[in-house]
Design brief:
The structure is a single chain. The chain has 265 residues and is α+β, with helices and mostly antiparallel strands. It folds into 2 domains: 19-63, no CATH class; 70-233, Cyclophilin (Beta Barrel). It is built from 5 helices and 10 strands. The chain has helices spanning 19-25, 31-63, 90-102, 185-188, 200-207, and strands at 70-75, 78-84, 112-114, 118-121, 151-154, 167-170, 192-198, 211-214, 217-222, 228-233. Strands 3-4-6-5-7-2-1-10 form an 8-stranded antiparallel sheet. A two-stranded antiparallel sheet has the order 8-9. The radius of gyration is 33 Å and the shape is elongated.
Protein backbone atom coordinates (compact mmCIF):
# COMPACT_ATOMS: atom_id res chain seq x y z
CA UNK A 1 0.00 0.00 0.00
CA UNK A 2 1.38 3.37 -0.95
CA UNK A 3 1.85 6.06 1.69
CA UNK A 4 -0.29 9.21 1.03
CA UNK A 5 1.67 12.30 0.28
CA UNK A 6 0.98 15.11 2.74
CA UNK A 7 1.42 17.73 0.06
CA UNK A 8 1.48 17.06 -3.61
CA UNK A 9 3.04 20.40 -4.42
CA UNK A 10 6.50 21.27 -3.29
CA UNK A 11 5.60 24.95 -3.55
CA UNK A 12 3.25 24.58 -0.59
CA UNK A 13 6.23 23.91 1.63
CA UNK A 14 8.00 27.04 0.46
CA UNK A 15 7.77 29.89 3.05
CA UNK A 16 5.87 33.00 1.98
CA UNK A 17 8.09 35.79 0.77
CA UNK A 18 7.24 38.94 2.77
CA UNK A 19 7.47 42.50 1.44
CA UNK A 20 10.41 43.13 3.78
CA UNK A 21 12.21 40.06 2.53
CA UNK A 22 11.48 41.01 -1.06
CA UNK A 23 12.84 44.49 -0.44
CA UNK A 24 15.94 43.01 1.22
CA UNK A 25 16.56 40.87 -1.85
CA UNK A 26 16.04 43.80 -4.24
CA UNK A 27 19.29 45.02 -5.79
CA UNK A 28 20.50 48.30 -4.30
CA UNK A 29 20.45 50.00 -7.70
CA UNK A 30 16.74 49.27 -8.15
CA UNK A 31 15.54 50.61 -4.81
CA UNK A 32 15.58 54.37 -5.67
CA UNK A 33 13.59 53.71 -8.83
CA UNK A 34 10.98 51.72 -6.90
CA UNK A 35 10.70 54.45 -4.27
CA UNK A 36 10.19 57.08 -6.97
CA UNK A 37 7.49 54.92 -8.55
CA UNK A 38 5.64 54.53 -5.25
CA UNK A 39 5.83 58.28 -4.60
CA UNK A 40 4.50 58.98 -8.08
CA UNK A 41 1.55 56.60 -7.56
CA UNK A 42 0.71 58.25 -4.22
CA UNK A 43 0.73 61.72 -5.80
CA UNK A 44 -1.38 60.45 -8.67
CA UNK A 45 -4.07 58.97 -6.43
CA UNK A 46 -4.12 61.72 -3.78
CA UNK A 47 -6.40 64.19 -5.71
CA UNK A 48 -9.00 61.46 -6.23
CA UNK A 49 -9.01 60.59 -2.54
CA UNK A 50 -9.37 64.26 -1.55
CA UNK A 51 -12.16 64.78 -4.08
CA UNK A 52 -14.12 61.80 -2.76
CA UNK A 53 -13.73 63.10 0.80
CA UNK A 54 -14.95 66.56 -0.22
CA UNK A 55 -18.05 65.12 -1.89
CA UNK A 56 -18.76 63.01 1.19
CA UNK A 57 -18.54 66.07 3.45
CA UNK A 58 -20.62 68.28 1.13
CA UNK A 59 -23.49 65.82 0.84
CA UNK A 60 -25.05 66.50 4.29
CA UNK A 61 -24.83 70.28 3.70
CA UNK A 62 -26.67 69.98 0.37
CA UNK A 63 -29.33 67.76 1.90
CA UNK A 64 -29.97 70.27 4.69
CA UNK A 65 -31.20 72.84 2.16
CA UNK A 66 -33.93 70.55 0.82
CA UNK A 67 -36.51 70.37 3.66
CA UNK A 68 -37.58 74.04 3.37
CA UNK A 69 -37.92 75.08 -0.29
CA UNK A 70 -38.01 78.79 -1.06
CA UNK A 71 -40.20 80.54 -3.63
CA UNK A 72 -39.74 83.99 -5.14
CA UNK A 73 -42.83 86.03 -6.05
CA UNK A 74 -41.76 88.74 -8.48
CA UNK A 75 -44.36 91.50 -8.29
CA UNK A 76 -44.67 94.98 -9.69
CA UNK A 77 -44.07 96.22 -6.14
CA UNK A 78 -40.87 94.18 -5.69
CA UNK A 79 -39.71 90.64 -4.97
CA UNK A 80 -41.00 88.58 -2.05
CA UNK A 81 -39.14 85.41 -1.02
CA UNK A 82 -40.97 82.87 1.12
CA UNK A 83 -39.69 79.77 2.88
CA UNK A 84 -42.08 76.82 3.05
CA UNK A 85 -42.65 74.20 5.78
CA UNK A 86 -43.47 70.84 4.19
CA UNK A 87 -42.66 69.13 7.48
CA UNK A 88 -45.50 71.02 9.21
CA UNK A 89 -47.93 71.56 6.31
CA UNK A 90 -47.15 68.98 3.60
CA UNK A 91 -50.48 69.27 1.76
CA UNK A 92 -50.50 73.07 1.77
CA UNK A 93 -46.89 73.26 0.58
CA UNK A 94 -47.38 70.65 -2.14
CA UNK A 95 -50.50 72.52 -3.31
CA UNK A 96 -48.71 75.88 -3.42
CA UNK A 97 -45.67 74.44 -5.21
CA UNK A 98 -47.91 72.81 -7.80
CA UNK A 99 -49.41 76.18 -8.71
CA UNK A 100 -45.95 77.79 -8.72
CA UNK A 101 -44.46 75.15 -11.02
CA UNK A 102 -47.41 75.37 -13.37
CA UNK A 103 -46.93 79.13 -13.75
CA UNK A 104 -50.41 79.69 -12.35
CA UNK A 105 -49.53 82.78 -10.32
CA UNK A 106 -48.07 84.73 -13.25
CA UNK A 107 -50.47 87.57 -14.03
CA UNK A 108 -52.45 87.27 -10.79
CA UNK A 109 -52.80 90.23 -8.42
CA UNK A 110 -52.73 91.03 -4.73
CA UNK A 111 -56.42 91.89 -4.69
CA UNK A 112 -56.91 92.57 -0.98
CA UNK A 113 -54.89 94.67 1.45
CA UNK A 114 -55.88 95.71 4.95
CA UNK A 115 -53.26 97.73 6.83
CA UNK A 116 -52.46 96.22 10.21
CA UNK A 117 -53.98 92.90 9.20
CA UNK A 118 -53.14 91.09 5.94
CA UNK A 119 -52.37 91.13 2.20
CA UNK A 120 -54.07 88.50 0.04
CA UNK A 121 -53.62 87.21 -3.50
CA UNK A 122 -53.28 84.13 -5.66
CA UNK A 123 -56.52 83.83 -7.66
CA UNK A 124 -57.59 86.93 -9.57
CA UNK A 125 -56.30 88.36 -12.84
CA UNK A 126 -55.67 92.04 -13.57
CA UNK A 127 -59.34 92.50 -14.45
CA UNK A 128 -60.31 90.71 -11.20
CA UNK A 129 -61.56 87.59 -12.88
CA UNK A 130 -60.93 84.37 -10.90
CA UNK A 131 -58.74 81.75 -12.56
CA UNK A 132 -59.73 78.11 -12.54
CA UNK A 133 -58.03 76.04 -9.86
CA UNK A 134 -57.38 72.48 -8.81
CA UNK A 135 -59.56 70.82 -6.20
CA UNK A 136 -59.58 72.21 -2.66
CA UNK A 137 -57.22 70.78 -0.05
CA UNK A 138 -57.73 69.62 3.52
CA UNK A 139 -56.94 72.28 6.11
CA UNK A 140 -53.74 71.89 8.11
CA UNK A 141 -54.46 74.76 10.50
CA UNK A 142 -53.94 72.40 13.44
CA UNK A 143 -50.22 71.98 12.62
CA UNK A 144 -49.06 74.12 15.56
CA UNK A 145 -47.87 77.07 13.45
CA UNK A 146 -49.21 80.48 14.46
CA UNK A 147 -50.36 83.33 12.20
CA UNK A 148 -47.53 85.65 13.25
CA UNK A 149 -46.24 88.66 11.34
CA UNK A 150 -44.60 87.63 8.09
CA UNK A 151 -46.14 84.17 7.92
CA UNK A 152 -47.86 82.83 4.82
CA UNK A 153 -51.22 81.09 5.20
CA UNK A 154 -53.86 79.39 3.06
CA UNK A 155 -56.86 81.62 2.31
CA UNK A 156 -60.24 79.88 2.24
CA UNK A 157 -63.99 80.33 2.49
CA UNK A 158 -66.32 79.41 5.35
CA UNK A 159 -65.47 75.74 4.90
CA UNK A 160 -62.07 75.02 6.49
CA UNK A 161 -61.33 72.58 3.67
CA UNK A 162 -62.01 74.99 0.80
CA UNK A 163 -58.51 76.39 0.25
CA UNK A 164 -57.16 76.28 -3.31
CA UNK A 165 -54.64 78.71 -4.81
CA UNK A 166 -55.18 81.76 -2.60
CA UNK A 167 -52.79 82.77 0.17
CA UNK A 168 -52.28 85.71 2.48
CA UNK A 169 -49.43 87.38 4.36
CA UNK A 170 -49.95 88.28 8.00
CA UNK A 171 -48.90 91.90 8.61
CA UNK A 172 -49.11 91.55 12.40
CA UNK A 173 -49.42 88.72 14.91
CA UNK A 174 -52.93 87.50 14.05
CA UNK A 175 -53.22 84.82 16.71
CA UNK A 176 -57.00 84.95 16.52
CA UNK A 177 -56.63 83.26 13.10
CA UNK A 178 -54.96 80.24 14.73
CA UNK A 179 -56.58 76.85 15.18
CA UNK A 180 -58.69 76.59 18.34
CA UNK A 181 -60.83 73.55 17.65
CA UNK A 182 -62.81 71.74 14.95
CA UNK A 183 -66.22 72.92 16.10
CA UNK A 184 -66.70 75.32 13.17
CA UNK A 185 -64.95 77.27 10.43
CA UNK A 186 -64.39 80.13 12.87
CA UNK A 187 -62.59 77.96 15.43
CA UNK A 188 -60.67 75.97 12.84
CA UNK A 189 -58.42 78.89 11.91
CA UNK A 190 -56.10 79.32 8.90
CA UNK A 191 -53.21 77.05 7.97
CA UNK A 192 -49.75 78.61 8.07
CA UNK A 193 -47.36 76.91 5.65
CA UNK A 194 -44.45 79.34 5.27
CA UNK A 195 -42.97 82.72 6.08
CA UNK A 196 -41.39 85.68 4.33
CA UNK A 197 -37.59 85.53 4.56
CA UNK A 198 -36.92 88.46 2.22
CA UNK A 199 -39.11 91.28 0.94
CA UNK A 200 -41.37 91.93 3.92
CA UNK A 201 -40.87 95.59 3.13
CA UNK A 202 -42.56 94.88 -0.21
CA UNK A 203 -45.52 93.30 1.57
CA UNK A 204 -45.73 96.35 3.86
CA UNK A 205 -45.57 98.65 0.83
CA UNK A 206 -48.53 96.83 -0.73
CA UNK A 207 -50.42 97.10 2.55
CA UNK A 208 -49.79 100.86 2.56
CA UNK A 209 -51.35 101.47 -0.85
CA UNK A 210 -54.69 103.31 -1.00
CA UNK A 211 -57.63 100.96 -1.46
CA UNK A 212 -60.94 101.19 -3.27
CA UNK A 213 -63.99 99.23 -4.36
CA UNK A 214 -63.40 97.48 -7.67
CA UNK A 215 -64.96 94.60 -9.58
CA UNK A 216 -66.65 92.10 -7.24
CA UNK A 217 -65.10 93.68 -4.12
CA UNK A 218 -66.79 96.37 -2.05
CA UNK A 219 -63.47 97.64 -0.66
CA UNK A 220 -59.83 96.80 0.21
CA UNK A 221 -58.59 96.53 -3.40
CA UNK A 222 -55.11 98.15 -3.63
CA UNK A 223 -54.68 101.02 -6.06
CA UNK A 224 -52.76 100.40 -8.24
CA UNK A 225 -53.15 96.63 -8.26
CA UNK A 226 -49.84 94.86 -7.49
CA UNK A 227 -49.31 92.17 -10.15
CA UNK A 228 -47.33 88.94 -9.75
CA UNK A 229 -45.16 88.87 -12.86
CA UNK A 230 -43.79 85.42 -12.07
CA UNK A 231 -43.23 82.89 -9.30
CA UNK A 232 -40.54 80.22 -9.16
CA UNK A 233 -38.84 77.81 -6.79
CA UNK A 234 -35.25 78.81 -6.03
CA UNK A 235 -32.93 76.27 -7.64
CA UNK A 236 -35.47 75.25 -10.28
CA UNK A 237 -36.09 76.53 -13.77
CA UNK A 238 -38.76 79.22 -13.90
CA UNK A 239 -42.05 77.81 -15.24
CA UNK A 240 -43.70 78.93 -18.44
CA UNK A 241 -46.60 81.35 -18.07
CA UNK A 242 -49.88 79.46 -17.63
CA UNK A 243 -53.42 80.72 -18.09
CA UNK A 244 -54.92 78.14 -15.74
CA UNK A 245 -54.19 74.92 -13.94
CA UNK A 246 -54.88 71.55 -15.52
CA UNK A 247 -58.27 69.81 -15.17
CA UNK A 248 -59.61 72.34 -12.64
CA UNK A 249 -63.08 72.88 -11.19
CA UNK A 250 -64.51 76.41 -10.88
CA UNK A 251 -63.02 78.44 -8.03
CA UNK A 252 -65.13 79.73 -5.14
CA UNK A 253 -66.26 83.32 -5.52
CA UNK A 254 -64.17 84.65 -2.65
CA UNK A 255 -62.02 82.50 -0.39
CA UNK A 256 -60.50 84.76 2.26
CA UNK A 257 -59.85 84.96 5.98
CA UNK A 258 -62.41 86.65 8.16
CA UNK A 259 -62.20 90.44 7.96
CA UNK A 260 -60.59 92.36 10.78
CA UNK A 261 -63.05 93.87 13.20
CA UNK A 262 -64.26 97.14 11.79
CA UNK A 263 -63.37 96.22 8.19
CA UNK A 264 -65.83 94.68 5.77
CA UNK A 265 -64.70 91.53 3.93
Amino acid sequence: MSVPRAFSCAAALKPTLTAAAYHARMPDAARPAMQRLLAFLILLLLPFALSAQAVKQAAPAAASTQPHPQVVLRTTAGDITVELYPDKAPKSVANFLQYVREGFYSGTVMHRAIAGYMVQGGLYTRDLQPKRTHSAITSEADNGLSNLRGTLAVARGADPNSGTSQFFFNLVDNRRLDYVGNQSGLTWGFAVFGKVVKGMDVVDKIAGLPTRALGPFANDVPNPLPVVDSAYVIGEEAPARAASAATPPPAPAAAKPAAKKGAKG
